[in-house]
């Protein structure tokens, strides 16, 4: 099997690979402090369960990272992935002005990816993203190993920010 024919394992970041709990208070205030929320992302501790799953998947699959973080966070995000020793792989981020729900933007990327390769699995903590991906026929692993605040869930769905 050549590298380009290997299936893809697609991993979310926040509350799947990284523990974003310390940043969630920035979303619980009004107005939400998005700049502080994203600025604190490099200090996220890794989530052992997600990291282990990613490393294991890399044995059979090429890893792809799919996040709702905006493009302006790319440098910090790439540095965080490298600091955790996670496998190299393309990083798909939302455009800085894209406010569509994560369930829409992520499914769009999954469809593009699966046009040329098998997507073996999507690992994500957002239940609405997982539901949409399952309805579209993708195998989903629901990352339920981190606590998520109601504010973060609302931001993912209603504000299209992460």
Can you describe what's shown?
It is globular and about 45 Å long. It is of the alpha/beta class and 162 residues long. Strand 4 (119-124), helix 6 and strand 5 form a beta-alpha-beta unit. A 5-stranded parallel sheet has the order 3-2-1-4-5, sandwiched between helices. The protein contains 7 helices and 5 strands, in the order E-H-H-H-E-H-E-H-E-H-E-H. The model has no long low-confidence stretch (mean pLDDT 92). The longest helix is centred in the middle third of the chain and has 13 residues, at 102-114. The protein is 38% helix and 16% strand. Helix 5 (102-114) packs across helix 6 (127-135). It has a single domain (3-159), classed as Rossmann fold, CATH 3.40.50.1000. This is Polynucleotide kinase PNKP phosphatase domain-containing protein. InterPro entries: HAD-like_sf, HAD_PNKP, HAD_sf.
Overview features:
162 residues; alpha/beta; Rossmann fold; five-stranded parallel β-sheet; 7 helices; 38% helix; 16% strand; globular; HAD_sf
């Amino acid at each position: 099997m050549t590298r380009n024919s290997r299936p893809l394992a697609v991993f979310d970041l926040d509350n799947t690979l990284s523990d974003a709990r310390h940043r969630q208070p920035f979303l619980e205030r009004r107005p939400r402090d998005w700049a502080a929320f994203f600025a604190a992302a490099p200090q996220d501790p890794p989530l052992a369960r997600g990291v282990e799953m990613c490393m294991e998947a890399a044995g059979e699959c090429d890893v792809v990272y799919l996040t709702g973080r905006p493009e302006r966070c790319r440098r910090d995000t790439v540095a965080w992935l490298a600091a955790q020793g996670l496998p190299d792989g393309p990083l798909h981020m939302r455009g800085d002005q894209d406010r569509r729900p994560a369930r829409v933007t992520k499914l769009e990327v999954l469809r593009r990816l699966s046009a040329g390769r098998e997507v073996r699995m999507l690992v994500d903590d957002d239940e609405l993203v997982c539901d949409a991906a399952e309805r579209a026929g993708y195998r989903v692993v629901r990352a339920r190993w981190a606590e998520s605040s109601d504010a973060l869930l609302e931001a993912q769905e209603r504000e299209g920010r992460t």
